[in-house]
C-alpha cells in the first residue's frame, strides 16, 4: 500500500475504512500507512479502538502507529 508513503491526509478516510473492514493483512498495512501519514485527532479514537482487533498483527501495527504519533507529538513540544 503506497498511500502512507505519499503522506496524503486525503487518504485517511479510505485507510480508516480498510482498518475497520479489511482483511488482517490490509488492516496492518492501513495502520502502518496511518502512522506514516500522522493521524489527526479524528483518527485517534479509531486507532485506540483497533487496539482490540482480534488479529495480533493488527494490534501491533496500531500500537506502532500510535507510538509514532505520540513520539512526534513529544518531539514537537521540545
Are there runs of 5+ residues with pLDDT below 50, and where?
1-5
**Which shape, going by the Cα principal axes?**
globular
Total strands: 0
Please state the average pLDDT score.
Answer: 85
H/E order of the elements?
HHHHH
Number of helices: 5
Helix content: over 70%
Q: β content, as a range? A: under 5%
Structural class: mainly alpha
Nearest-angstrom radius of gyration?
Answer: 11 Å
- What is the distance, rounded to the nearest whole angstrom, between the alpha carbons of the first and last residues? 32 Å
The biggest sheet, with number of strands, parallel, antiparallel or mixed sense and barrel status, is: none
Describe the structure.
The protein has helices at 3-6, 12-21, 24-37, 44-50, 56-77. With 78 residues, it is mainly alpha-helical. Mean pLDDT is 85; it is low at 1-5.
Summarize the structure.
With 78 residues, this protein is mostly helical. Helix content is 73%, strand content 0%.
Record keyword descriptors for this entry.
single chain; 78 residues; mainly alpha; 5 helices; 73% helix; disordered N terminus
Amino acid at each position: 500500500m503506497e498511500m502512507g508513503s505519499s503522506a496524503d491526509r486525503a487518504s485517511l478516510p479510505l485507510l480508516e475504512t480498510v482498518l475497520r473492514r479489511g482483511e488482517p493483512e490490509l488492516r496492518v498495512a492501513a495502520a502502518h500507512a496511518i502512522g506514516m501519514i500522522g493521524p489527526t485527532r479524528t483518527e485517534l479514537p479509531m486507532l485506540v479502538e483497533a487496539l482490540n482487533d482480534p488479529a495480533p498483527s493488527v494490534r501491533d501495527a496500531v500500537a506502532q502507529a500510535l507510538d509514532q504519533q505520540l513520539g512526534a507529538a513529544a518531539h514537537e513540544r521540545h
